[in-house]
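Sample intake sheet
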Amino acid sequence: MKVVKWLLAIVLTIVVGITVYLTMFFDLNNFKPQIVDAVKKQTGRDLQISQDLSWSVFPSLGIKLGGISLSNPNGFTPASMLDVNEAVANVALMPLFSQQIEVDLLKLDGLTLNLVTQKDGKTSFDGLTAETSAEKPQSTSSNSEAMSLQTLDIGGIELTNTNINIIDMASNTTQTFSLKSFTLGQFSLGQFADFAYEFSATLPDMQLASSGQGKIKVDEALQNVTINDFDMVHKAQGDSLPGKAITAELSTQMKMALDAKTIELQLTKMSAMDLAATGDIKINYGNSIPKIAMNLDVGDIDVDALLPKQEGDAKENEATPETAPSKEPDLSGLKSVDLTLNLTAKSIKVSNMLTQNWQMKMAVNKGVLTLSSLTADLYEGKLALSAKLDGRKAVPTYVFDKKLTGVQIRPLLTDAAEVDLLSGTASFAVKGSGASLIVDNLKNNLNAVGKFEVADGSLYGVNIPQMIRSAQQKLKGDLSADKKEELKTDFTSLTGSFTMKDAVVTNPDLAMASPLIRLNGKGTANIATEALDYTLTTSVVGSLSGQGEPADESLKGIDIPLTIKGTFQEPKFGIDTKALLEGQFKDEADKAKEKLKEGLFKKLGI
């Protein structure tokens, strides 16, 4: 019992002795001039510590600092680079004797950081790197290797009122990032601790705000960090945003392996506007270019609703196009990306065109974007697409292979291009390549070959049998032959192939078959001007008579030239009446020849 009392007395004596020594004979403020001079000598900056430094000893060893300011380089505005209102660190005293660190409190309040970039490129960081730091590169590592902690316990961490101002004098812009608060609860190695934060930012074109909370664990080897139940809410406001405001919610689990330099994120919830997604992200940051692998599963995406709406009259905007010359997009950023993305989506709507059941595999590596596979359901049919975009040169190049099968072509054309010209079940295949992503160059530089087939459909805007019948009756003298019938020509098949060069699609073998007519021809379509120029030949294979009229097969076997002019939006169909007239005369002449022949044979008694 006496031994215990003596031990307690010795410990108490040591603590009291340390307390007396630190408070009476070791005044931290005596070192302030030395600290200020060292900073000035090392960086050329002025360090100010306006408040006295103070000790706390029992039951924890602590230090309190306040009124700290570090200047920016001469001539910079603002003059101060770093300001700290108060910093407090308290460490339990007794565990230090057993190489155990128990931090009662870490507190930092009122930190303001002004990072300035001048017009000449000089920054607030210039001169801060110590030249002597490179002279002994092994000192840091040897010290860290010698450091060994039995335990690390932190009673709590509080960061409040932290502001970072990023000032660019060349563009005359300021971005402000504010950490209103960050708190960490009771923390021990190998155990989960609660944390929470509130953050905001002011950018040139929007305001951001974010808050979140979760649980964090660091293993005893200080190599693995795990964050669970990390729930965040992000809000953004700005004129360029859809509806001028966006709220996004994110819930994730994260694992970080510092030795392997990997990060794994499990997205249990990600929602913004009407978007919802889940998935996982893996990042390997051990290389100079981080390697990222993403798997995302999203619901319904309406791209049209996500794009900012244009103010003013659309027609007025079209009448006053921008006069600035078009430039190739800068794709140099693709060289610093190593990404693989697997995406599935319930539906995606773009420019009023709806696709469903998306499955996409894409990769970006060394400046090349490769879309190895994209499949989707499209207007009762299937879409299959592969493509590659090479952004390593100033003018990007691309190749693609696209197939549509079993697609209902009328609603597709109506939604995608507002063209009501054709209906039926269509299959379409095209391969192409080109250079440049400028809109005009996309049309002019694209080279492509393809083929199409449409079954059991209609050609809208023209009724070819009625048009031929009306023209024939007018040639017979019936000038009132026009009948108001639906401008539609039904067909059983429509096929052809095409090539595209210099913005002109050339179709040399258009063929259409229906119960009444056969149509063959060739033509061109200019996608830059939307001009149509087709010459077709129609052969009548059935009766062109209307319902309830006697059968008229007078035009069987006669080839009738047709033309298609105008534009995609307003095609104009025409008929060569001269051919009808010549066909009529030929038919009458043939009948006269037959009668003459019969009369001659009778006279000859044959």
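Comment: The first strand starts at residue 47 and ends at 49. Residues 1-5, 7-15, 130-149, 312-324 have pLDDT under 50 and may be disordered.
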